[in-house]
Amino acid sequence: MKHVQFVVMLGLSVILGKPALGLSRSSLSEDDSSSTAALQEQLKALEQRVQMLEKLLKSQSGSAYGPAAEAGRPSASSPEAARLEEPGKKPATPERRLEPEQKDAETNKKDSPIAGAGANGFSLTSPDGDFNLKVRAHFQADGRFFAGDAADTSASTFATRVARLLFEGTLARYFDFRFMPDFAGGRLVLQDAYMDVRFLPQIRLRAGKFKTPFGLERLQQEVNLSLVERALPNNLVPNRDLGIQVHGDLFGGVLNYMGGVFNGVPDGASADQDNQDSKDYGGRVFAQPFLKTGIHALRGLGIGMAATSGSHHGTSAAPSLPSYLTTGQSTFFSYRSDGTKEGTAIADGRLSRLSPQAYYHWGPFGLLAEHVISSQGVRKADIRARLDQNASQVALTYVLSGENASYSGVVPKRSLDPRARTWGAFEVAARYSELNVDKNAFPLFANSSVSARKARAWAGGLNWYFNRNVKFVVNYEQTFFKEGGTAGSRQTEKAVLTRFQLAY
């Protein structure tokens, strides 16, 4: 700055014609003329430089200390000031500024449910597995075609046997639920609606509407049946009922037990309500004694026993008594009912059932057998009686394509794919079943000219499993009757039954 001040003072003295720094015109005039000329040239050059310095100082003063510069100067709290004050600190890059957003996205992803779709349906599961929802569907399109004399009394038809949506899931790890509405036949029926509390595999609590723990074939899912329709003993087996049940598996699945209290339903029936105070008690024990042993040929053996008991009382308007159906869904037995007290048979007393049951599977071979006894107290007018009905079945299956037979159905090793020359799985099935009505039911409680005393049925079928979700079934079943006709026995029913099934 001292050099700049000196140059400025020197320039001003030259411009104003005043002495500066001890120099005067008189002293300059004493010099040689040539020296004077050289000095004037130097002063002229200095004058030009001073002018340039003035402009430079003026411009620096305006930009460094003016209002505009103050407005543009970064504040001490701004990021720019921080970078200027801390030259050693690495400035934040766009990638580093995005790190919190990326962390939030990763956190949201971890908390998002896991969606799935496959052969077992659609599913949504929480990341920790404590909550899940499964959505599945069952559909059965049937054909019933009658030949011979039965064609006069039974109409050949196509029918939607099952059209169900299944909603299953878990809440808070220990609470399972299942809702299964059925739209078959253009009607809405809530088949299953229950919840399970399962703290341990050995003990679970179920409440709602579900299958009564009794019949072996009835407890088998509809989509896993080896023939189109269930056998004749299912006319004596309770179907779905409202109640509460304790059940579980012991010894790693070797022993299964079920026991509960239910509203109570007639043989072969389901119900959504109850108008009686009395309840039914039901229980079932089923064992697979060789399941955990090294005897492979016996691992698929299961044996069990089931029983129910409860008091049932009907009225002439609601007799609370069953009717029995053939596999072609024709009624072959019913109690007398004309709507009057004198002409209508009603339930009146205890209804007890007992069923020994068993199945066996070894490789492609399968067997299912059960026997059912139903003892019903009945009344017509002032006459009471106890009627004992019984029914049995034996069914055999064999998987021709080599897959394992099982109670839960056949899973093809190779799905149907004509391009790959794979054709799914094939299974043959055969069955004998019969139902016997107590002879004391005739003629007071039932009319032998319209109700048969006995029915015997032989059936054979072929199952084609396209894959684990789709199969086609064709059966031929012939049912013989004792009595039940206007001139002796009811006409033999000869039925061809078909089914296209989707189970997803």
Per-chain topology:
Blueprint: H1 2-16, H2 25-29, H3 33-65, H4 67-72, H5 79-85, H6 94-97, H7 99-111, E1 114-118, E2 121-125, E3 132-147, E4 157-171, E5 175-182, E6 189-200, E7 203-211, H8 216-219, E8 240-250, E9 255-262, E10 280-287, E11 301-313, E12 323-325, E13 331-334, E14 345-362, E15 365-380, E16 383-399, E17 425-436, E18 452-465, E19 470-485, E20 488-489, E21 493-503
Helix pairs in contact: 1-3
Q: Explain this structure to me?
A:
The chain is of the alpha+beta class and 504 residues long. Helix content is 17%, strand content 44%. It has eight helices and 21 strands. The protein has helices at 2-16, 25-29, 33-65, 67-72, 79-85, 94-97, 99-111, 216-219; strands at 114-118, 121-125, 132-147, 157-171, 175-182, 189-200, 203-211, 240-250, 255-262, 280-287, 301-313, 323-325, 331-334, 345-362, 365-380, 383-399, 425-436, 452-465, 470-485, 488-489, 493-503. It has a 16-stranded antiparallel β-barrel. Residues 14-31 and 63-89 have low confidence and may be disordered.
List keywords for this structure.
8 helices; 504 residues; single chain; 16-stranded antiparallel beta barrel; alpha+beta; two-stranded antiparallel sheet
Short recap of the structure:
With 504 residues, the protein is an alpha+beta fold.
Strand content: 35-45%
Indicate the percent of residues in helices: 10-25%
How would you sum up the major sheet? 16 strands, antiparallel, barrel
Cα radius of gyration in angstroms: 48 Å
Order of strands in the sheet with most strands: 3-4-5-6-7-8-9-10-11-14-15-16-17-18-19-21
